[in-house]
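seq:
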Amino acid sequence: MKKVFFILLVILFHFNLFSTSRIDSLEAFLEKAFIKKRPEILNELSLECRDISQDKSIEYGQLALKEARERKDHRQEAIALNNIGNAYKISKEYETALTYYLQALSIDEKHKDEEHLTKTLSKLGYIYVYLEENNKAIPYFRRALQISEKNKNINDIAYFSNCLGMTHWYLNNYALALKFYKRSTEFFKKDNNLITASVALNNTGNIYIRIGDYESALNHYLQSLKIKEEIGDKKQIANLLNNIGNTYHKLKQSDKAIDILIQAADIYKEIEDMNGYTQTLNNIGVFYNLENEYELALEYHMQTLEIRKRLNDKKGISISMNNIGNVYRNLENFDKSLKYQLEALALKKETKDKFSIASSEANIGHVYQLKGDFSRSEYYLKHALKLAKEIESDDLLKEIYINLYELFLNRKNYEKALSYHRLHSKLKDKMYNEESSKRIAEMQVKYETGKKEQEIELLNSGKKLRELKISQQNIIIYSSILAIIITITLIMLISHQSQLRKKEIEERKRIEKEIKELNRTLEKRVKEELDMHKKQQQLLIQKSKLESLGKLAAGIAHEINQPLGGISMSLDNILQKMNSNQLDNKYLNKKFDSLFEHIERIHKIIEHIRIFSRDQQSVIFEKIDVNQTIRDAVSMVQTQYVNHNIDLSLELDETAGFTLGNKFKLEQVVLNLLNNAKDAVEEKASVKLDYDKKINLKTYSKRKKVFIEIKDNGTGISKENLEKIFDPFFTTKDADKGTGLGLSIIYGILTEMKGDIIAESEQDEYTVMKIILPESFEKESK
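struct:
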């Protein structure tokens, strides 16, 4: 290891020495160079300094940019902008890098420099990947691919196909990711670029793992392995063997999986890659633990622990101790399990890694629970829960909630157990699956059974008292029967009709009084129920509105980001003018006007969202400009639709009338329907290639009615479901994508406005949602 380290140090020294001497040579050449050559040399200096000093790289890039603009050298101007962007990208100032890349793109397009254009498009695509806005990266990679196809550049076709595969992978569009990865593999092989072809094959295997097609994954991993073996890249061979071993494990071929992992471990050991070696030994130990081969699992984890101690790898030591603790837990040796788990926790606290600490505390809490020490179990689980909430880790929260559920279930505190299980269920991908329903039902039964047992005990303790009461009741019943007989006999003897009539009148009055009282209380109860229903309906509408805003968050952020970008660009232009002593009042006034326009736009967007999201509790009816309401709704989503490559077209009839109602509730209706249409076209695009996603929104008036139609060419609705779509809680979406309340709430809002909604659809073809509203009695004066 010392030898390898020394060689790397020598290489690094010579690389830095070479870079420094190259920079010195360029700086010396710059002083003697012709004026025309200066931008080119400055750009080379910017490129050479990029990995050594980003500030110096930016400085040379700015000088190159200035001189290239003075000489109208468009190629060097675009290169300078790219170099400055690269330096900002390395410094992780991605938004700033983006502004320079976009300027470079504008120059490349203007002067039709396709060679440089594809490079700029590639940089723009990757900057959006770094910003985790993969949807925005796709159009740049796609355009670069189109240029490469036109020029028949095989290497670039392979490269940009690989880029598109990567972005679709990040977006979980696995069908498209597979399509592009397969294409990149094909062209890399044509170009005889075997190293990159093997990477593409490995990536394809990773996608097949994700979608659960383990046999296809194995096939691609093996093809990639064959190339790596031909090249002789031992580290990559070991990495692939790790992937293959994990795949065999998923195929339930554990013996094969472990054999392959042992081969990987041997290679890592041979090339002295101790990180890969210990990680593979760790995986083997985990597999043996899952196979209930606890002694073998301990053997591998102990071996890993010893190596990591020699390397003083504190993070690795804590992982090994944690795994050993898990094996001892499965062996029900809880004291030994706690010993290792607590030592692992102490090391993790040194790193201050909240995720690792929370994970370790959850394990310790579980062991204490199995041991029967419920108070310590609760302490560790509650502390783990606090950390998991701080870092917003859903995986950890699910694990902790289920441990707390089991803890309180063992304590027979069924109410708390039920609450933690509900929290656990909310974080599951499918909220109401069979297993969770069964557990909830079981807890409900136990909870109710516990209550019943208490009631039975109370009843048993009062059994004698009840028997005494029963005998007293029997005496009263017999006495009552005797009294009735005597009364009837007296009535028959006296035969006094007037007295009977009097009693009948009194009885009738009494009954009438009771009926009136019942009616009075009934009206009160009905009123209370109606009030409660209205409140619940209002809450559902507000919840739906906030859900809509949540789904639109990305689009709204982009709407605000555009004027912010304009502000940033204007300030940058002013700074450049100031640095070049070209600043004058006329230019400043023009830029200030532009800045204030951008600020006003941001203000309007935020004000509109604030009013829209406010709880509209009172039913205020006002005259609504239907077209303007639709424009306001679309303004919050149009950028999002562009980013998703959805063609959203408007056909607003300016003669369409006005209607009466709540403007923001109608806006909510339009947003919900647009969101449903978006989901439908996105779902269809995930399974159908070369498909254009289209949504059309139009308005018109006819027979004193205002019509709003929203049509999409998405998945459509089946005939059997079409009649149910407005029913509360009916949905064909997964539990994590919809509650089935959206269309029900829309129906309620439109009914409140004296309107209606009609759905027309053809499965796999289209869906039309037609809103019909009464026209208001007065028109807006024009």
